[in-house]
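Record type: ASSEMBLY
Status: queued
Input:
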Amino acid sequence: MTAELWLTQLHENGYRLTDARRAVVEIVEQSTRALTPVEVYDLARKKYRALGLVTVYRTLEKLEELHLIQRVHQPQGCQAFVSAGHGHQHLLLCQNCGRVEFFDGDDLDALTRYIAQKTGYQINEHWLQLFGLCMDCRKN
Amino acid sequence: MTAELWLTQLHENGYRLTDARRAVVEIVEQSTRALTPVEVYDLARKKYRALGLVTVYRTLEKLEELHLIQRVHQPQGCQAFVSAGHGHQHLLLCQNCGRVEFFDGDDLDALTRYIAQKTGYQINEHWLQLFGLCMDCRKN
DNA sequence: TACACTATTGAAAATGATTTTCAATATCAA
DNA sequence: TTGATATTGAAAATCATTTTCAATAGTGTA
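Status: finished
Output:
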């Protein structure tokens, strides 16, 4: 159960463990889709009715700060978060159901070196994201 | 003067040419940085005082629809637009001054095929963006 | 276990970004 | 030149996010 690990992380970083945080963590950790704050709010309130939307925002902020979740950029908007992969990974998104997959194994070094040389930029970082249809969504 | 071309594009697509649109187009077309709607508004109002912010939004919407500009996604936010490159190109952003460069010549086919095979996804699209420091900003 | 300190909470209000509504105006084809 | 109508800016409405604040709950300590 990784939700426990997330809570441990929060605790080890000086944050208190509350029912509100537990509810948010449980929802976000086990989702295979990126969720917006309002979606998290709606889902987490099934576990903890008294939860406030503001607390969802605040909890997501902390989870992002601890690199447990990451923001997902999509053509439709950039407000959603998913549980973050480990190490340097990239996202593969299903355009139909929103399912998120991670992958690594990209080797952009050659490209990066080429572009750096051609443009004179010092390149520090890259974002790579693939979009498509997951196995399930291809079946219709 | 590409601004003229943009106006022609607008006209050919059934949109009228107005002073407001001319001012917005001129600003966005010649900028090397991504600009937010408010930034466009402030700059364009130097050319056309009566311009309204709403018209900026509406004009940006049309320019995006015609693929003359594109939205730029950054860690700080995703509200800014730049003039779009031709064909399939990617962005290289200066983390200091915001300057935007285009590049192509990425070959992600091998990676894409590999990920498709490994995950069962049908991959339709990819986003690749590099971040770094431009020549000028490296000098300090 | 009880306590005290203070981080955390939810509600309401404030802010910021974007969209809608609407009556006045400007564009453009005829 | 004119008339149909696309476009405009202002104000209001909406949606997302942040701030404020007093009440409450978590945590380490006694």
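Annotation: The interface with chain A takes residues 73, 78, 92, 94-95, 101, 103, 105-108, 111-112, 114-116, 118-135, 138 of chain B (CB under 8 Å).
Annotation: Residues 53-65 of chain B form the longest helix (13 residues).
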